[in-house]
Amino acid sequence: MVGLVLLLLLQVGGSFGAAHAQPERRALDSLAVALLLAGPATLLLLRGHPRLLCAGVGAATAVYLATGYPYGPVFASLVVALVVNVARGHRFVAWLVAGAVVGVDAVARLLGAGPWSWASETAVVAWLTVVLALAEVGRVRVERAATFREAARERTRRQAGEERLRIAQELHDVVAHHLSLINVQAGVALHLADRRPQQVEPALVAIRDASKEALTELRWMVDVLRDGDGPAPRAPAPTLASIDDIVGRSATAGLVVTKSVEGRPRALPASVELAAYRIVQEAITNVVRHSRAGHASVVLGYGAALLTVRVDDDGGTGVRPDGIVQGNGLRGMQERAAALGGRLSVAPSPLGGLRVEARLPTREGP
Questions:
Q1: For 52-61, which contacts have Cβ atoms below 8 Å and span 24 or more sequence positions?
Q2: Cα separation of 35 and 5, whole Å?
Q3: pLDDT tens digits, one per residue of 192-211
Q4: Which of 26, 135, 143, 312 could form a cystine bridge with 68, CB 3.0-4.6 A?
Q5: Domain C-terminal end among 55, 86, 116
Q6: Which domain covers residue 35, as residue numbers?
Q7: pLDDT, greater one: 265 or 365
Q8: pLDDT for 236-288, tens place per residue?
């Protein structure tokens, strides 16, 4: 509202000042004042209808110029109307109204409404063209900024979705592995409770240790989800060295797991070590849950630019790799490998069961 009052004062007062320098033009009178007031009034009354606003201000300006009144701040309201329409996407209306105002002024001067001057007419055309061009530049910049903001929001949403998927995989791997061990040990404890009660204690200890480790890993993941201003996670992420823990826990579930290393061990990127650990963890979990295997082997092969993770079991279930139902576990292992640019395959194992093999780029090679 304050802006419209200032615009009104500029348009009326400035026009009286400009009239002194244009004695050849028609002197301002009550009609001129009414036309000068019409522009700001139209801006106030039709601010919710930009195209009608532009047409109304353009008509008031055109009548003012056709009557032969002096040039001056009469164009102020028209500039506002043109910029508003260009900014809101009504570009055709803005250019049409600007052209109509210039055309009316030119025709009126040719008909004697004022002295003809190529210089002044060219100045009006150039001035309105510059205004519209600047409005177009402003509109493009605003649209580009809006596009960048939307792209940033979409990138944030995509990253959040990827992070949720990663966390879901972590939760599945941790919970499935430890609960599978707990389930096996609980079954053993129930089976031995009456027959050999002295052997129940080791099973309960294994349950306690598995549940404690599961809770530790879950707390670590919850810490990761905390606000960035909160304390850093205190527990380290699992690494290849942690595979020895899987070997030890599996023994309590009746599965003998051996681990061997091919090539020269070295430190690898944390993402590669975590993926390899989770793949071994999920593969051993599947052996415990879905096979009658008594032995499994884990082989870590260090290549120049590739880490090979191979898990074999002697389950002898008779299930072919192409007959395996792809659940969350297998899908999660494949996604972990693919996220690093690697691949995971399931094939028959020379031991009689299945072989899960992942080839993970280490990004350290040439």
A1: 53/81, 53/84, 53/85, 54/81, 54/82, 54/84, 54/85, 54/90, 54/93, 54/94, 54/97, 55/93, 55/97, 57/81, 57/97, 58/97, 58/98, 58/100, 58/101, 60/35, 61/35, 61/101
A2: 15
A3: 666 667 666 776 777 777 67
A4: 26
A5: 116
A6: 2-116
A7: 265
A8: 567 888 888 888 877 766 788 999 999 999 989 988 998 999 899 888 888 88
